[in-house]
Amino acid sequence: MTDPSIPLAAADGFGQGAAAYEAGRPSYPADAVGWLVEEIGITPGRRIVDLAAGTGKLTRLLVPTGADLLAVEPVAAMRDQFRVAVPDVEVVEGTAEALPFDDHSVDGVVVAQAFHWFDLVAACREIRRVLRPGGSLGLIWNSRDVSVPWVAELSRIIRWDERGRWQVPYTVEVDWAERFASDETGFGPLRTFHTTYRQRLDEDTLVARVLSTSYLASQDADAQAVVADRVRRLVAGFPDTFDLPYVTVAYLGVAEDRSMR
Known about the structure:
Layout: H1 8-16, H2 18-24, H3 30-40, E1 47-51, H4 59-62, E2 68-72, H5 76-85, E3 90-92, E4 106-112, H6 120-130, E5 131-144, H7 149-158, H8 162-165, H9 176-182, E6 191-201, H10 203-211, H11 214-217, H12 221-234, E7 242-254
Parallel strand pairs: 1-2, 1-4, 2-3, 4-5
Antiparallel strand pairs: 5-7, 6-7
Helix pairs in contact: 2-10, 7-12, 10-12
């Protein structure tokens, strides 16, 4: 049974497309991850939650810190992929609005490529509940660099049916620092870190990347084949391996002490 708190596009798309997600989604740039590690204080002895961890794309980059890592992921198929990719980190079922942790029991929460699926105010309230005083929330997104012409065309292919079938909450125009400032989030002004990333891939990996998109992963095989064919025609004549460029933004917020108000 699908958890009603998980949007249909996420539950269906990521459930059916978990393998494509692991195969095709990029990692994250070392400088952005390093910034989050330093600002949050992800060090040995600190308890850090990777929320909506997916297949562990960010989690595996945090393992070398020696922190006590815990992953939360609501979609069973994604948890299965996570356990294969990051076997030494526990992953449990849960959502941003209902975390399976005691009050004030974790030092930091990170969210990669997923916060746009959450109820902003409810999720922030729940994250503040589990954070220890002064705990931090770190967010990170990779977005395709559409200033590159072929990437702009790729994005048009990916988004061809997005608005027709699903109510998908994410657009690259969202400024999360502004969203947090204008809502009752309890994390104060967010700090930001901007960088870039290049994902080295081949044609098959690019197709997997495209088909891992939630509203495409849940379509039938014929519809997916149409999209895959358009992607292959777009990169026909490219070298065997090539780079897909991204712009990456990370955000950092510290939980406010509302007991002082």
